[in-house]
């Protein structure tokens, strides 16, 4: 708990950008600081794809939720960056799940560690629906997240749950990343799903790599970047839903959110969904 408190204090530092708030800025939200907007602009100058990439990620996550809900999944755990404030009314992930789910009453738990995101979600979402909860937590403390009282009592863990890991950029330790996946698999019922995102430099032109590396070190120190083969190794042993591990715009484009299909690698992010037997 002490480590979490220290991390949260660090996130309150207005001069340091965070990946969560950069995503919020790219969505047109207000839960971000000048440092986050400046970082977004600097990335666009170094490799003019940042805003487009962030929106491709958001669209991908909505497609994943829509597909899962349409298939009958009624419970979702979204770990990190699930509630950017700039999305239009009715376009948050719990709205997408409600529209797609037969019967229309999915339960969604957002897990967030950014104080601005937490405050915004608790003020604007929880008061208007009894089907959403917002829990303070960090993927780097996966045991605490899964053992949280709200998490254990709000969801029925004897029935399938879709766990979306959106903040894998904070997992620098490969061994712990493997543990996170193992822990999720142990916690959920048969027929559940695990979805994850991973930032990569695979699509960055070689001539731009030095500048992007330097910019990342300055603006988002500790942000984990992985090549495709490294992500595939993390997913070894899981049964991936077609089309497997792909650039996020390529994961089941459905006509609703097709941003980035003209240049999928510009998303800078791989996505995959696995069914847990």
Structural class: alpha/beta
Task: State the order of secondary-structure elements, H for helix, E for strand.
Answer: HHHHEHEHEHHEHEHHEEE
Q: What share of the residues does DSSP label as strand, in percent? A: 5-15%
How far apart are the first and last residues' alpha carbons, in Å? 33 Å
Gross morphology: globular
Query: What oligomerization state is this entry in?
Result: single chain
Instruction: Report low-confidence residues grouped into runs of 5 or more.
Output: 8-12
Helix content: 40-55%
- Describe the sheet with the most strands: 8 strands, mixed
Mean pLDDT rating: 87
Tally of DSSP helical segments: 11
Number of strands: 8
Query: What does the radius of gyration come to?
Result: 17 Å
Word description of this protein:
By secondary structure, the chain is of the alpha/beta class. It has 11 helices and 8 strands. Strand 1, helix 5 and strand 2 (107-112) form a beta-alpha-beta unit. Helix 3 runs antiparallel to helix 10. The protein is globular and about 50 Å long. The relative contact order is 0.16.
